[in-house]
Amino acid sequence: MDKENCSSLTEFFLLGITDNSEIKVTLFTTILLIYLTNLLANLGMIILIRMSSQLNTPMYFFLSHLSFCDLCYSTAIGPKTLVELLAKNTSIPFVGCALQFLVFCTFADSECLLLAVMAFDRYEAISNPLLYTVNMSSRVCFLLMAGVYVLATADALIHTTLTFRLCFYTQLNELAIFTIFGFIELSTISVVLVSYCYIILSVLKIHSAEGRFKAFSTCTSHITTVAIFQGTMIFMYFRPSSSYSLDQDKMTSLFYTLVIPMLNPLIYSLRNKDVKRALEKLKNKIQGSNITEVLRFYTILGFK
Known about the structure:
Number of helices: 11
Radius of gyration: 23 Å
CATH superfamily of the largest domain: Rhodopsin 7-helix transmembrane proteins
Strand content: under 5%
Structural class: mainly alpha
Helix content: over 70%
Shape: globular
Largest sheet: 2 strands, antiparallel
């Protein structure tokens, strides 16, 4: 595409996942269920953490932001994907596409950086338990999150600008995108690996098997999340160009934009006793509140 054609571009026409109408219906139903589960699970996790005093710790503070990132970048893609599966006109305005890409990149990058911060948090909790509340104070947590969002937004702006200028200096822009994204990926993976090396060394110093198991069990959900997210990213962007397949890329993209955000809150809640206790406590509180309201209603009516 030459410079004149690129500058006059006003919209894109999306190829879509498939042209088969029967498969489209199945995909629409599946993606809708996944997105609704994702929406409910992540919103539920955020609300539970905000309302529960026993989850008022750095680990769950970061987890609430992980759910927020999952919710945002999946919402940037999910609803539009559902519309495209049913709509006849599959065009998207140039500005709309750029904005969608910017939002997606911002929160996907935020999640990538946040997973590294969460690994550091686990290192502090296990390696320096006596100084944990000091080293990971509310101020430190807020500063870390501010740094995550600032860096992610800056990278997303650069990534979006370069992506939508590919028609001008294709090779240079592709190289810049790959270099910046590769640096972020390698940096975050390095932080995770180094943190877990120190965590393993600290766990090995614990004498009792029960103590070692208890210490390391707090990391299993995070390790699972990192493995799924980073594994998918590496497969998507760092595999040899000779193995590229458009259909395979579409399915992989759907997986990390919709399925992973749905899995994360489930991973952190299904085997997490703190979350289960907080959920049970909140449920009892709501039920108690409902009973109180019913009794008050009967009292107003004159019943005792």
